[in-house]
Specification:
Layout (H helix, E strand, L loop, with lengths): L2 H30 L4 H13 L2 H13 L8 H22 L14 H5 L12 H8 L1 H7 L4 H17 L5 H25 L1 H11 L1
Helix pairs in contact: 1-9, 2-8, 3-4, 4-6, 4-9, 6-8, 6-9, 7-8, 8-9
């Protein structure tokens, strides 16, 4: 991607984030107004399928099945771990309440039972960060699945706003940070081959 394109996309994301921060509450209310029983069930499925454990197991299996791509398993694990840690640190540093905790929107009973009432803070969205940090890997190693994975990531991000678990700005920033983490890890791995060396040592045993 050319520098001009990167700058242009960066500017769009910056202003989109400012817009979402200003209108966060109204956006959450607007999205919640389209709730239906069908969409509730659909996005609950998306929520559980996008759990950290499911993504971890799915990606591990995907790369294990392709012998020539196994060396990327360790970088992916590291990327997921790093995203989770950064998300945790940001959440407890900023401590932004979730929309439903502020009374802006009600939470579905099924999500209450899943302990979201005592879940962690809102900013940034860890679900968005985790799913978006994997996009660079899928795009480069499994380009045929690139757009399917991107659409899945967008559905995950939207589901967080739909249920009132996050503001739009939470998922935009979370997704952006996650994507950048993935890009940086891949770039460093290509230059230094740190994880590939470890993988080769392990695989020889």
């Amino acid at each position: 991607m050319k520098k001009k394109q990167v700058v242009f996309i960066g500017i769009i994301i910056f202003f989109l984030t400012l817009f979402s921060l200003y209108f966060d509450s109204e956006i959450v209310k607007g999205v919640s107004s389209i709730r239906t029983a069908f969409l509730d069930d659909f996005f609950i499925g998306i929520t559980y399928l996008s759990s950290k454990l499911v993504i971890f197991l799915f990606l591990t299996m995907l790369f294990v099945l392709r012998y020539n791509k196994r060396k990327w398993i360790l970088p992916i694990w590291f990327t997921l771990f790093l995203s989770a840690v950064i998300s945790f640190l940001l959440k407890f540093s900023i401590q932004r309440p979730r929309p439903f905790q502020l009374g802006i929107i009600s939470l579905l009973p099924s999500l209450e039972k899943a302990s979201h009432l005592i879940w962690n803070f809102s900013f940034p969205s860890s679900h968005a960060m985790i799913i978006f940090c994997t996009i660079p890997f899928i795009s480069r190693k499994f380009p045929r699945f690139k757009y399917i994975w991107i659409i899945s990531a967008l559905l995950v991000a939207f589901s967080r706003v739909y249920f009132g678990l996050h503001f739009l700005s939470d998922v935009i920033v979370g997704g952006l940070i996650g994507y950048l983490i993935g890009i940086i890890v891949i770039k460093q791995e290509k230059e230094n081959k740190f994880w590939e060396k470890i993988y080769n040592k392990i695989s020889r045993r």
